[in-house]
């Protein structure tokens, strides 16, 4: 599996930003990717040392649009802990 097909996008949320202070970064990853593939992909793309990978599957939520009920999509989230001194510039130089 290609590194860019494993890592889909960074997750943008308040919790994800507060975890960045502890050197933890959150990504949406491919559903069939395992922890070793996620670790290798992050190390290859961002050129950092990964010490730990935690994964979880985000379950779909029930949503309703007018009279039709449905569900949101389910996806896999990975929280990647980097080695001391490493960091990822998620949004470049935007401020």
UniProtKB/TrEMBL annotation:
Keywords in alphabetical order, please: Ribonucleoprotein, Ribosomal protein, RNA-binding, rRNA-binding
An example GO BP is: translation
Protein's job? One of the early assembly proteins it binds 23S rRNA. One of the proteins that surrounds the polypeptide exit tunnel on the outside of the ribosome. Forms the main docking site for trigger factor binding to the ribosome.
Which NCBIfam families does the protein's record reference? PRK05738.1-3, PRK05738.2-4, PRK05738.3-2
Q: Share what the entry says about its subunit structure, partners included.
A: Part of the 50S ribosomal subunit. Contacts protein L29, and trigger factor when it is bound to the ribosome.
Which family is it part of? Belongs to the universal ribosomal protein uL23 family.
Query: What name does UniProt use for this protein?
Result: Large ribosomal subunit protein uL23
Name the encoding gene, please: rplW
Task: Note the SUPFAM superfamilies from the entry.
Answer: Ribosomal proteins S24e, L23 and L15e
Cellular-component GO terms for this entry: ribonucleoprotein complex; ribosome
GO MF terms here are:
rRNA binding; structural constituent of ribosome
HAMAP family under this entry?
Answer: Ribosomal_uL23_B (MF_01369_B)
């Amino acid at each position: 599996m290609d590194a860019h097909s494993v890592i889909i996008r960074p997750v943008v949320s308040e919790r994800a930003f507060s975890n960045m202070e502890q050197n933890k970064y959150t990504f949406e990853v491919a559903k069939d990717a395992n922890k070793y593939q996620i670790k290798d992909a992050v190390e290859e793309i961002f050129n950092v040392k990964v010490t730990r990978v935690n994964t979880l599957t985000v379950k779909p939520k029930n949503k309703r649009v007018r009279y039709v009920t449905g569900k949101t999509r389910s996806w896999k989230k990975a929280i990647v802990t980097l080695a001391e001194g490493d960091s990822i510039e998620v949004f470049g130089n935007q401020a």
